[in-house]
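Re: beginner question about structure tokens

> Can someone show what the tokenized structure looks like for a real chain? I only ever see the sequence side.

Sure, here's an example I had lying around. Input first:
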Amino acid sequence: MHRLGKDYFDLSYNLSLILAIIPFTSWLCGAVTRFAEGKIVAGLVRFLFGFSIVWFLDIVYMVCHKRILRLIDF
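And the corresponding structure tokens:
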């Protein structure tokens, strides 16, 4: 379950966008958020590959869809 614009720890869209732009915070917040949602595989993927294409796609998704990329939902 996701809420529009409330991806990183229920923060506002603007703050989530700023966190998504910064590589380290995007990697950390993305992994922690997915683990907190109970999505272990998605959290591991973000933890391992969060500094690569996932980071870029998070920025694109935040700007276009106002949410982070949800590639894996388990």
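Each token stands for a local structural state, so reading them left to right follows the chain. The two ends are 12 Å apart (CA to CA).
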